[in-house]
């Protein structure tokens, strides 16, 4: 019986999940791919570390044991980081080995190089697990929705921040308490910066935008803003406006270029993304033929992410069986500009503290008017005898105009503080 031999780079949470799934599904691999699947080597940093349930004879700390082994046909990279993952993947592709990766950091920066190398050597480079864990989104956009002109991809692609915002919304927690709870449950790292500042989501949005719009978008193109400034007061106003606050990755393909960013947004409670709770992820796609489609599920974790990795591995093995590896490579055949955040239009929710005296609202309205900002809603609450809380909701306006208006407002003696600035979807 034919055997497909693979190597795993990294044996952390995802790598362990991949190894376990291969063992667990060994009896059905022949039916699934027409061959048995065997893990021949696992690259680890510390070969002496005891790993329960893993055959120690498979472990190696020497990359040459894998790259020089002609029997190994698929390399599964789940070690993360830029280097030495990039070097190993490129060497594997050049050696004629197929590669499956979950490395969003690397792909968001260097994906075009990896895909071009795979195409040159007629092998597969697949990365479904790099974006949203168990949720299929890369393959659907490359294959199932291939005929569509996709104009929008928007999603909740970070489970940590979605869990935190869910707790703030449903249980009235403040940000710090919700973050602490997320860390206790393992949803957040000890250093949560990448999650709560939107960096993790930004990398995933760069990957999705590149595929959706057939044009290269890299992580530095993505404007990112996190959730650390969201307060219980903002959550209350969102409820009053029949909305919820979510950290959204947003990508639009417009006539003047690609708009791409990650930031907290108020989204109406009737939108499908508004109901995505806790650590779940979802991606909403709009195409001209398919119209609206949403992909929902677990966005991280040992087995959800391993599920996506193994989906790619099985796809590679099937391609091997029919001699058609490399049939779908880089789809970025366009060279579209990526717009500066200042030229992107958004609606805004602005909460500010002002002196409680006549003429303040008129002065605020004048400043906004001078900077092409149209106001659609005003809410004023008296919080103290000499101070009021003023909430302004705007029409869609370029970010640069809003920035200039806020700078001028902050110079007015009647504006004590701009407490929150949140975009509206």
Automatic annotation (TrEMBL):
PROSITE patterns xref list: ACT (PS51671), HOMOSER_DHGENASE (PS01042)
InterPro entries tied to this protein: ACT-like_dom_sf, ACT_dom, Asp/hSer_DH_NAD-bd, HDH, HDH_cat, HDH_CS, NAD(P)-bd_dom_sf
GO molecular function annotation: homoserine dehydrogenase activity; metal ion binding; NADP binding
Pathway recorded for this protein: Amino-acid biosynthesis; L-threonine biosynthesis; L-threonine from L-aspartate: step 3/5; Amino-acid biosynthesis; L-methionine biosynthesis via de novo pathway; L-homoserine from L-aspartate: step 3/3
Catalyzed reactions per annotation: L-homoserine + NADP(+) = L-aspartate 4-semialdehyde + NADPH + H(+)
Keywords: Amino-acid biosynthesis, Metal-binding, Methionine biosynthesis, NAD, NADP, Oxidoreductase, Sodium, Threonine biosynthesis
Residues at which L-homoserine binds: 189
Ranges where the ACT domain occurs: 349-423
GO biological process, one term: threonine biosynthetic process
Binding site for NADPH: 104
Gene3D superfamilies reported in the protein's UniProt record: 3.30.70.260, Dihydrodipicolinate Reductase, domain 2, NAD(P)-binding Rossmann-like Domain
Signal peptide region: none
Cofactor: a metal cation
EC code(s) of this entry: 1.1.1.3
Enzyme type, top EC level: oxidoreductase
UniProt-annotated catalytic positions: 204 (proton donor)
List of residues binding NADP(+): 9-16
PANTHER family: HOMOSERINE DEHYDROGENASE
Family the UniProt entry places it in: Belongs to the homoserine dehydrogenase family.
Protein name: Homoserine dehydrogenase
Lineage: Bacteria, Bacillati, Bacillota, Clostridia, Lachnospirales
Chain's gene name: hom_1
């Amino acid at each position: 019986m034919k055997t497909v031999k693979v190597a795993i780079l990294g044996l952390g949470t995802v790598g362990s999940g991949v190894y376990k799934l291969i063992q667990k599904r060994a009896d059905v691999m022949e039916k699934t791919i027409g061959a048995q699947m065997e893990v021949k080597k696992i690259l680890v940093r510390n070969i002496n570390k005891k790993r329960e349930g893993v055959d120690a004879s498979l472990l190696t700390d020497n990359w040459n044991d894998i790259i020089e082994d002609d029997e190994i046909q698929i390399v599964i990279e789940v070690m993360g980081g830029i280097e030495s993952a990039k070097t190993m993947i490129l060497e594997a592709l050049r050696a004629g080995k197929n590669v499956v990766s979950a490395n969003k950091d690397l792909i968001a920066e260097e994906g075009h190089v990896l895909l071009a190398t795979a195409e040159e050597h007629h092998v597969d480079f697949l990365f479904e697990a790099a974006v949203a864990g168990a949720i299929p989104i890369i393959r659907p956009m490359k294959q199932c929705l291939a005929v569509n002109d996709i104009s929008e991809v928007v999603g909740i692609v970070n489970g940590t921040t979605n869990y935190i915002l869910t707790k703030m919304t449903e249980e009235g927690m403040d940000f710090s308490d919700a973050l602490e709870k997320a860390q206790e449950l393992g949803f957040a790292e000890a250093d949560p910066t990448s999650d709560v500042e939107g960096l993790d989501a930004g990398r995933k949005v760069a990957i999705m935008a590149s595929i959706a719009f057939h044009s290269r978008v890299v992580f530095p193109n993505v404007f990112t803003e996190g959730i650390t400034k969201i307060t219980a007061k903002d959550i209350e106003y969102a409820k009053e406006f029949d909305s919820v606050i979510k950290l959204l990755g947003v990508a639009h393909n417009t006539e003047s270029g690609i708009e791409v960013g990650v930031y907290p947004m108020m989204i109406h409670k009737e939108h499908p993304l508004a109901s995505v709770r806790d650590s779940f992820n979802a991606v909403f796609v709009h195409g001209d033929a398919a119209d609206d489609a949403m992909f929902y599920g677990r966005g991280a974790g040992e087995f959800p992410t391993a599920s996506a990795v193994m989906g790619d591995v099985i796809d590679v093995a099937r391609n091997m069986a029919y001699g058609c590896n490399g049939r779908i490579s880089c789809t970025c055949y366009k060279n579209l500009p990526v717009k500066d955040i200042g030229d992107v239009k958004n609606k805004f929710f602005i909460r500010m503290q002002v002196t409680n005296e006549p003429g303040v609202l008129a002065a605020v309205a004048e400043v906004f008017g001078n900077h092409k900002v149209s106001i659609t809603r005003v809410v004023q609450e008296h919080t103290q005898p000499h101070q009021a809380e003023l909430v302004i909701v705007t029409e869609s306006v370029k970010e640069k105009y809003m920035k200039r208006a806020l700078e001028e407002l902050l110079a007015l003696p009647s504006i004590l503080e701009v407490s929150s600035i949140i975009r509206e979807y």
